[in-house]
């Protein structure tokens, strides 16, 4: 039986995405401004926010900080989105705090969105738990994203690509400014919280072209903020495959160093930070699933747009040169699937198309038609399930047991795959105590 808190949260889905901070600010005021009771490091960007946040939280924990982590979307359970020192919020606390937000919304006579409610729950939980700092991944934007209400002096910008242009702007330049303007909301929140001085902000920036980087520096200067562009480190070891994760980890190291050395509590230890990263695997993103014998059986990657697929194929070319994969592929209706398939085609020998019950998923007929139009054949198709994955794995292993099955195209699909495989691979052990819940981006 679903809880009252989850009933309330699901009732928010009808409001979709509503950019703006008025409702969140009003509710924070009623709830006692919990967001002012901890430090915040904002992570914004088109791709790479989740891994950067996850790596950063691990480095902060290793230095003794009680650390919150806020990410979206989740793979299996809503509880993943709100963590303290890597432990997900409990079902009981989640339900209790959802009802707190519900009651505050009734008092304020506002109708917060799904994402706004979860953001507020996270604020309340981190305040209750007495965290020192939160690595807070923005949802879609920056300036008008509800997470911006938290007063962070550090902003990490991971990358810029064309996505959600109807809200964020039609060009990469417009999207850059929209995401960096998270500082505008933070400054307003500091003033609203009656703090006498606005502390100088710091941007840690990566993944930009030279022209966008020049704009980022100009934006920082106009806001009297520092702009740090860290070098990509060559001494980072990660469980996640791909140079883009090295880039994200480099940003995390730079942000952690700046935050820790300015905290007055301790001094940043680079060796300790690198050690923390060696075992920090961001689930579902270029993640290798290895069996008891050490054989890599699957590679899971939530690449769900052309920008992310480019990184995926770069990584496959680097780590598996000349190899073609059996690929389990599914995607949402609003993605440029044709471009994604074109980019992946040189690295795939067999296409196994799939979908989940989630209503935004593309139908199998649609995927088959797109593949056929590109001159590509479908090897198998069916609803995503353990049985379907096993069948693909058996076919691939019979052909070459040293080549893992690639599963990609949608984070929603990766979530279903994690749920199906979590009891068989130690790399998914985190998910074993979590039950599936509503899976929405916002």
Topology:
Elements: H1 4-11, H2 22-30, E1 39-44, H3 49-62, E2 67-70, E3 82-84, E4 87-88, H4 91-108, H5 114-129, E5 133-137, E6 154-157, H6 165-168, H7 172-180, H8 182-192, E7 202-205, H9 210-222, E8 226-228, H10 243-262, H11 270-277, E9 287-290, E10 296-301, H12 306-319, E11 325-329, H13 337-344, E12 348-355, H14 364-373, E13 378-383, H15 386-399, E14 405-408, H16 411-421
Helix pairs in contact: 1-4, 3-10, 3-11, 4-5, 7-9, 12-13
Give a verbal description of the structure:
It is a single chain. By secondary structure, the chain is α/β, with parallel strands linked by helices. It folds into two domains: 4-277, UDP-N-acetylmuramoyl-L-alanine:D-glutamate ligase; 287-433, Mur ligase, C-terminal domain (Protein-Tyrosine Phosphatase, Chain A, Alpha-Beta Complex). It has helices at residues 4-11, 22-30, 49-62, 91-108, 114-129, 165-168, 172-180, 182-192, 210-222, 243-262, 270-277, 306-319, 337-344, 364-373, 386-399, 411-421; strands spanning 39-44, 67-70, 82-84, 87-88, 133-137, 154-157, 202-205, 226-228, 287-290, 296-301, 325-329, 348-355, 378-383, 405-408. The strands form two sheets. An eight-stranded mixed beta sheet has the order 4-3-2-5-1-6-7-8, with helices on both faces. Strands 9-10-14-11-12-13 form a six-stranded mixed beta sheet, with helices on both faces. A hairpin with a 5-residue loop joins strand 9 (287-290) and strand 10.
């Amino acid at each position: 039986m679903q809880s009252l808190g989850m009933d309330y949260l699901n009732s928010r889905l009808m409001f979709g995405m509503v950019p703006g901070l008025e409702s969140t600010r009003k509710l924070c005021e009623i709830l006692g401004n919990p967001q002012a009771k901890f430090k915040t490091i904002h992570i914004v960007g088109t791709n790479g926010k989740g891994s950067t946040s996850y790596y950063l939280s691990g480095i902060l924990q290793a230095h003794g900080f009680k650390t919150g982590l806020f990410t979206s979307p989740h793979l299996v359970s809503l509880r993943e989105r709100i963590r303290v020192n890597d432990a997900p919020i409990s079902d009981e606390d989640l339900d209790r705090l959802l009802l707190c937000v519900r009651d505050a919304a009734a008092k304020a006579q506002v109708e917060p969105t799904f994402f706004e409610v979860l953001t507020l729950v996270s604020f309340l939980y981190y305040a209750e738990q007495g965290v020192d700092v939160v690595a807070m991944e923005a949802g879609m934007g920056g300036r008008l994203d509800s997470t911006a209400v938290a007063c962070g002096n550090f902003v990490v910008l991971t990358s810029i690509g064309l996505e959600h242009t109807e809200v964020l702007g039609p060009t990469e330049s417009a999207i850059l400014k929209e995401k960096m303007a998270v500082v505008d909301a933070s400054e307003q929140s500091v003033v609203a919280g009656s703090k006498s001085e606005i502390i100088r902000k710091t941007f840690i920036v990566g993944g930009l072209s030279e022209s966008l980087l020049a704009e980022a520096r100009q934006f920082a200067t106009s806001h009297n903020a520092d702009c740090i562009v860290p070098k990509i480190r060559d001494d980072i070891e990660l469980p996640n495959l791909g140079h883009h994760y090295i880039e994200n980890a480099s940003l995390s190291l730079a942000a952690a160093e700046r935050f820790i050395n300015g905290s007055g509590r301790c001094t940043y230890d680079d060796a300790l930070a690198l050690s923390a990263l060696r075992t920090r695997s961001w689930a579902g993103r270029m993640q290798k699933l290895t069996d008891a014998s050490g054989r890599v059986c699957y590679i899971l990657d939530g690449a769900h747009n052309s920008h992310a697929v480019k990184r995926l194929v770069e990584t496959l070319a680097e780590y598996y040169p000349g190899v073609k994969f059996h690929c389990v592929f599914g995607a949402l209706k609003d993605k440029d699937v044709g471009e994604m398939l074109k980019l992946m085609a040189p690295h795939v020998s067999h296409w196994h198309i799939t979908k989940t019950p989630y209503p935004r998923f593309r139908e199998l007929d649609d995927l088959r038609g797109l593949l056929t139009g590109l001159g590509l054949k479908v090897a198998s198709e069916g609803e995503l399930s353990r049985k379907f994955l096993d069948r693909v794995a058996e076919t691939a292993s019979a052909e070459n047991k040293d080549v893992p099955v690639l599963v990609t195209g949608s984070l929603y699909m990766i979530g279903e795959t994690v749920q199906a495989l979590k009891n068989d691979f130690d790399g998914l052990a985190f998910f074993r105590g979590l039950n599936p819940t509503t899976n929405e981006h916002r």
